[in-house]
Fold these 3 entries.
Entry 1:
Amino acid sequence: MKALKNLINFSKIKPFLVIILLLLLYITICAISYVDIVSEDLADSVFRLHIIANSDSEEDQNLKLKVRDELLSYMNNIAKDCTSKEEVIALVKEHSNEFKEIASNVVKSNNFDYDVNVEIGPSQFPTKYYGDISLPSGSYDALKVTLGKAEGHNWWCVMFPPLCFVDVSSGIVPDSSKQEMKENLNDEEYDLISNIENEEVSFKFKLIEFFQNLKLGLN
């Protein structure tokens, strides 16, 4: 008799459990769809620089920064009139040999004999903060430069829009860089990367981080 009552009670609860599970599934699908759309739009709007040092020794890390400075100086000179990510990528591909030569010359002038490799394409990035602009983790197109064994810490920045020259300590990104970013994003997406102190925006930002890191862990 007791077993029968339990069965009847469960049969009454079961429809609610099914509804809850379907609702959770719907919310998850909507969240994943939102993350995919926003992540794709952000990735389509920026081109980044990714430099990996030979090792974590002080000498190799200092060398990485010297390579960074020379590459950014060259990039700033040739890409100062670029107005789109596509234009920047085309320019970087056209001058890929020059980027490699510049990095190699810095390595040699500092008495190292590391190989230098230059690649242009998608690369995984963690969440990074550039002054008052924040970019969630994910896959972004980048100029990737590896030095020697490439076993040291990475250095990342955004080459377009030009955020590499931002004084992060001041927490200010030039209005010109923000405007270029804004022109390639809708209002909500731009708000997402420039206003994460807002609780609602912060939640969405963390949502993107969660699913992107989950996706990275599954790959």
Entry 2:
Amino acid sequence: MEATNRPTFDSETSAEIYEYVERHGTAKRNVVLDVVSASAEEFREHLEQLQSRGYIEDDGGTLRVALDVGAVEEHETPVGQVVIRPGRQADFEGVLETIRDVTARDTYVVAESVAEQLLHEDAVTRHNRVKSRVFFVAVRDDTVIGWTHLDLPQLSSLQETAQLTVGVHEECRGHGIGSLLLRRGMEWAEANGYRKLYNSVPVTNEPAIEFLDDHGWHTEAIRRDHYTIDGEYVDEIMMAHETT
């Protein structure tokens, strides 16, 4: 299933199965059977329909949303081979730790908000009739060292715009990994029909503003005194990139 496609269901049972798996990131098949309002036979039939439609995949009894957001890329960098790939539920702790590492050093309020959403929802990817969220991660030696995240509104009036965040663990900065992640997110957005991306940072986060500016982003708006940081009012710089 494409991230730009809003899921639709033929029955309440199918919706119940999908929504439970989507809300929990992954779920054991027997657990889902226990919580849905269906017999074992009905559950099997509806699950098979969801799989045939490309909504759900079953990996040895573990169910997850089958969201197609692209392939795996391998890159040689000064810190070794780095893999850029779609994020998955198994990356939860790594993504959270990397966001925390970045926000502990640089004020990045939007990324802090993403981390809070992850903790609250306990799911890396979300894709339902209201919201959609995808991650790409940079992985070195099976460890997440960077991320780019796209928040994709499902409202028709907002479906051509998306919010993006990006960051790299402190020890791996300065080696082009952030550029790889940003480019992956931007290329995915353009390929999927998004005409504009946004990323907002406090005016005090000069490295982030310079990084985005170097990659073709521009300041679209400034919200005066939008943040309160260390007891002081700080402007928010709203950066934008138009894909077409």
Entry 3:
Amino acid sequence: MSAEIVGSVSWPVFFFGTVVLFGWFALMTAQALAHTWRPWTHCLLYGVLLAVGHRTYEHMLFAGDLISIRGLVVDVVFLVAVMLLAYRVTLVRKMVRQYPWLYEPDGILSWREKRP
């Protein structure tokens, strides 16, 4: 019953499948997008594709609902949030490392121009 809140078969399946496994996939995808200078909007598309992949994974291995709107929405929201955060952190690190004479970190999610 409580697993229906997240649209999954059970809480352990949700935690391992969505948070650990597909969360790591989302993290790696977002870092790849940031390293290749793709726009952040690509995270939205890839987040939806990862969520569909997670629904398929849960259906095939744990006999979960393949077409679960609640499960898909929870998966998309979580995976896109992870992707956007990882994308921004990676982009900030890349800007500061690649252009150290121009930029300095201004927190974990932003950079600023160096002042003379």
